[in-house]
Amino acid sequence: MTKIIAILNQKGGAGKTTIATNLARALILAGDKVLLADSDPQGSARSWNAAGNGDLVPVIGLDRITLAKDINAVIDNKDFIIIDGAPSIAELAIEAIKCADIILIPVQPSPYDVWACADLVDIIHARQSVTNGKPKAAFIISRVIKNTQLSKEISEALAGYKLPVFKSFTSQRVIYPTTAAAGSTVLDADKSGEATAEINAISKELKEFL
Q1: Overall average pLDDT of the 104-130 stretch
Q2: Domain spanning 3-202: CATH 3.40.50.300
Q3: Fewer beta carbons below 10 Å: N end or C end of the chain?
Q4: Of 36, 45, 39, 49, whose CA–CA distance to 18 is shortest?
Q5: Which helix (H) or strand (E) covers residue 104, if one does?
Q6: What residues does 79 pair with on adjacent strands?
Q7: Can you tell me the distance from the alpha carbon of 101 to that of 41, in angstroms, rounded to the nearest whole number?
């Protein structure tokens, strides 16, 4: 059965597209059939795909408020559909929540970024309350600065949302934006690199979370 993974955060710059493209590629390299659905009207994932000639991950645009219905037309023969969520558009976020099996919320290790998730988390909890706890949801810390630890304030703020936090994360590494600009991924640029290990760890934890 196809699993739909929505990567959402209504705050721009949280690392949604970076995680979406690299995670989709990791799943493909692991042998899964994956489709990346770009629900951001700005088309970041589609621009990334065009820069790489569309060779790494199949990408389509689904940026209408009929997302939950439209996705049924592309769900056949896929192991995973990854939705790269739109920032600051409540209707599209709600549509993604409706059709997702899992929601991943990238958040940078800053109290301001954590607090900005409040509205999204409220919507997720409201959905879960009427659908027997579905979709499952978790935070992913993104752009962690090397040789620093998450502050006590961040841990406490995330705990207040009553959602799990993935142990795996992405770090602040130049390879993420440089590969994105070329329409590539860290997995293709440096197969044995630390960034690749981070993405593979997220992929593994996602499957365990399922």
Answers
A1: 91
A2: yes
A3: N
A4: 45
A5: strand 102-107
A6: none
A7: 22
